[in-house]
Amino acid sequence: MKTDPAGVLTGVHYLDGDYACGEGAMAAGCRFVAGYPITPSTEVVERISQRFPMMGGTFIQMEDELASMAAVAGAAWTGSKTMTVTSGPGFSLMMENIGLATMMEAPCVVVNVQRGGPSTGLPTMVGQADMMQARWGSHGDYELIALSPQSPQEAFDLTIDAFNLSETWRVPVMFMMDECVGHMTEKVVIPPADEIDIVPRRLTDKKPGEYKPYEVNGNQVPEMARAGDGHRFHTTGLTHDERGYPAMTVECQEESVSRLMNKIRLNADQIIRIEEEDVGGADVVVVAYGITARVARMGIDMARAEGVKVGFLRLIVVWPFPEERIRELAKEIKAFVVPEINYGQMVLEVERCAYGQAPAVLVPHGGGGVHDPADICKAIVEAAR
Fold first, then answer.
1. Is there a shared CATH topology between the 5-195 domain and the 275-384 domain?
2. Which 8-state DSSP code applies to residue 195?
3. Eight-state DSSP code of residue 16
4. What number of helices (H) and strands (E) belong to the chain?
5. Assigned CATH topology for domain 5-195
6. pTM score over 0.70
């Protein structure tokens, strides 16, 4: 299915990542956004609020981030594609209702333009320290999906992918941009509407009275219905049965929560996306994501100039994590080098999956700026010895 042409600003543009993300959301068919202003993400919804009146979309500036996430989860049940936008402190406030959206299986996209933390931290400067929070921030057992763009072009392209993934797996998708990508301005090519494939909302064709919002099919992803279409159903954050009604039993907990986990875990191969360069025959493989992936390439080039065989693995989909690929590479190389604008988050996943077969060397950075490529080069050279 193709997207509504009214939401596609076809052509070649000079956009920052925040604006490109907003354009990607509209091109994907998003027509409801609720949010609360917070640096450095505000430009995403500024763009959307200007453009929505031309396509029948609704933007609401909510009183806070808790209400923003609640509105998005609820609006998903009207049949709308929905999104909210925030940064670190607001992301923390959203976590309870991200868990609610996960339990309700409400498809939506949560954009986090990361900044330096903790607490208020560095509102206008870059960070990457929310990556583990994206996966583990809410309580209980659940699985979700997270992506990380490295450029304004990817801010457009991957936002569309985020909506497609949310519709395919009926799950909240985290869009983990960072301040540098959000505020850098580059060429962004937006294709014609009929060249953009989007995944539509998978609505039930059952008659009113027959529909159950959590009745599964072959891939463990239930169909949805629109509120107001005559279907009688219930949705809640409580452990529930196929009808959506609370069911406080061990058996129902096992059935419902295991399905929330397995619909992502058992289909991880269809979701995971990585980019690899020159990993065959490499002594060291650099693993990076977001803006750090671009800086890492400069460090890799410097290390290659010193004669080191270096490969590169970029995380495009960060969660679920590419465990199998890391395990395979760990058998073939001397070490992984993982630069991050934090003091060690995704490096822990690399270390876990490497099973001690190859060390994972962190190149940390506290935030506020990007790495010096020379520091990444130094870590690569030392790891190759």
1. yes
2. G
3. E
4. 13, 15
5. Rossmann fold (3.40.50)
6. yes
